[in-house]
Design a protein that fits this description.
The chain has a five-stranded mixed β-sheet. It has a single domain, classed as Mannitol-specific EII, Chain A (3-Layer(aba) Sandwich), CATH 3.40.930.10. The protein starts with 8 loop residues before the first strand and ends in a 5-residue tail after the last helix. By secondary structure, it is an alpha/beta fold. The chain has five helices and five strands, in the order E-H-H-E-E-E-E-H-H-H. It is globular and about 35 Å long.
Length: 143
């Protein structure tokens, strides 16, 4: 099952605020048909209870269990901000929005955790020049 396609990946040279990054993550998921227009609010609700900053320049904004009805299908959005995002005082380069139908997000999360646990892997993701190159490096999330 493919949760990620090339058109759900963006690379930006600059920086945005945490909320702008979350909004873009939600918008990409919505455009992919994975979530409703209320998913950004669900992400905000999650962030209010627990930060989705994961370390290694990665944040994984997602909704709360109470907002599962906003998820239509499992999907991912991947945005790299080369200027970085201040995520509550933590430096973030990668913002990966997740929507998981049922418990599918747990498997997706573990795949992403594996990818971002290796420093050289993170460097390779940062070095990718195009969304297509990033997609190749991230394609394990689709298996």
């Amino acid at each position: 099952m493919a949760v990620l396609s090339v058109d759900q990946i963006r690379i930006h040279p600059g920086s945005v605020s945490r909320d702008e990054a979350m909004k873009e993550a939600a918008d990409i998921l919505e455009a992919a048909g994975a979530v409703t227009g209320n998913y950004y609010d669900a992400m905000q609700a999650r962030e209010a209870t627990v930060s989705t900053y994961m370390g290694n320049e990665l944040a994984i904004p997602h909704g709360t269990n109470e907002t599962k009805q906003e998820i239509l299908d499992s999907g991912l959005s991947v945005v790299r901000y080369d200027g970085g995002v201040d995520w509550d005082g933590n430096p973030v380069t990668f913002v990966i929005g997740i929507a998981g139908k049922g418990d599918e997000h747990l498997e997706i999360l573990s795949q992403i955790a594996i990818l971002f646990s290796e420093e050289d892997q993170v460097e390779a993701l940062k070095a990718a020049q195009t969304p297509e190159e990033l997609y190749e490096l991230l394609s394990s999330v689709n298996s």
